[in-house]
Amino acid sequence: MLLLEKAKSRVAEKAPRPKTGERSTKLQEAAPVRESEPAEFAKHYPSVALAEWIRSCPQVSPEQTCGEIAELFRRRQELECVAVVRTTGEPAGIVMRHRFFKLIGSLYGMPLFADKPVSKLMDVKAMTAETELSPQELIDRAMSRDEERINDAVIMTSGGVFAGVLTVSDMLQLSRLLRRELAGRQMATVRGAERMLRDIRGAVDVLAGEASVSRAGSLEIAELAEHGREDLTEMLGLFRLWTETAERQAKSVDELLARVSDTVGIAKMIAQLADQCNLLAINAQIEAARAGAHGLGFSVVAQEVRQLADETKSQAGQIREQLSGMAASAAAAAAHVREGKEGADRGLLQVHKTEETFNRLWTQSSENAKGTEHLATASREASAMSEQIAAQVAKLAAQMNESPEEKY
Predict the structure, then answer these.
(1) Which residues are bridge partners to 157 per DSSP?
(2) Res 400: pLDDT
(3) Worst-scoring range by mean pLDDT, 37-41, 206-210, 305-309?
(4) CB distance 314 to 321 below 8 Å
């Protein structure tokens, strides 16, 4: 059993261990991130895995003697510790060099413990952690140990089986890398915020420009609405004048129709008088014929009167016909005047509605102009504020870029 453990110890001693130079290379490769692009950040700041930092360590069984462990430490001056592992692969404890030689370095220490199993001197309360544990949690737990064990190595296991150890030096370098990674992430966040602020400022500037254009358009619309309202007021006066004129024309036509009607009645009466005169002339001719030679002169007069009555009747008929035509034309004119007046009334009503629409348009455009003025003012204030914030972010980024090594 002892030979088997010695063989395992020799194999463990020959196992490669991480080189400090390799870790330094990893740290050097972690350059400051540029513009916080996700792919670029992942390239320069890969996620830290504990499995890559585990250091190999000689494994001994709990039954090996303290003398053999002392011989191993003497032969391997670089060893900080030795892991005590059971046959099942589970860690039983750890033996730290400084504490081991402190115990056996006394006057009777070596003779007393040389043949005793190492389980008598191993630290059974050594910190043990799984490789799946996050690096930061591991460091926090390691740094929270008591003062006696704070400089001891941490036993790492994978599924409960011993996998290696992490020394304090390893954890310090790991902490330094984590801090740099955190700084890189912070820088990425700052750069992203800086870029977002530039975008916001650009959007605010565009918004301010659009607000100015919108305000100019609103003012122009308000001006056009005002001109339109003035034109409509003038048109409204013309429509009212048209309506009043149509009303006067309608009254005049109605008076004309009344006078034409009266004149037609007079012409009709004249025709009736002409008929009566004609009848009297015929009676006079009859009486003149009865008188014989004494009535010849009276017969001539009666004939002239009869001719005059016929002409009067004919002229009265013509006058009546002309007056009837005039009455029909006047009636048609009155109908047209009434239609024109109704159209004027409808136009007047439509003008009123259009005037109300222009009033609302003018009011709305005025409100829009005020709103766009407030928006432009707010945009200018937001632009100024974003410039101040961008300046502060740039200052923060510059401070984070200054002497990154001194911060760690």
Answers:
(1) 130, 162
(2) 67
(3) 37-41
(4) no
Q: 364: which 2 tokens?
A: 């709305």
0.85 surpassed by pTM = no
- Paired tokens of 27: 């740290």
Q: What is the pLDDT of residue 22?
A: 41
Q: Which residues pair with 165 in a beta bridge?
A: 55, 155
Continuous segment of H or E residues that includes residue 78? none
Mean pLDDT for 362-381 is 78
How far is it, in rounded angstroms, from Cα 328 to Cα 316? 18
Count of Cβ atoms closer than 10 Å to residue 4 Cβ: 10
Domains and CATH numbers, the chain: 50-166 (3.10.580.10), 195-402 (1.10.287.950)
What whole-number distance in Å separates Cα of residue 321 and Cα of residue 318? Answer: 5
Q: What is the mean pLDDT of residues 107-131?
A: 91
Distance CA 405, CA 118 (A): 43
The answer for residues whose C-beta is within 8 angstroms of residue 43's C-beta and 6 or more apart is none
Six-digit token string for 224: 């056009």
Q: Which amino acid is at 284?
A: A
Altogether, the residues listed in the chain come to a count of: 408
Strand order in the sheet with 154-158: 128-130, 154-158, 161-166
Which helix (DSSP H) or strand (DSSP E) does residue 262 occupy? helix 168-291
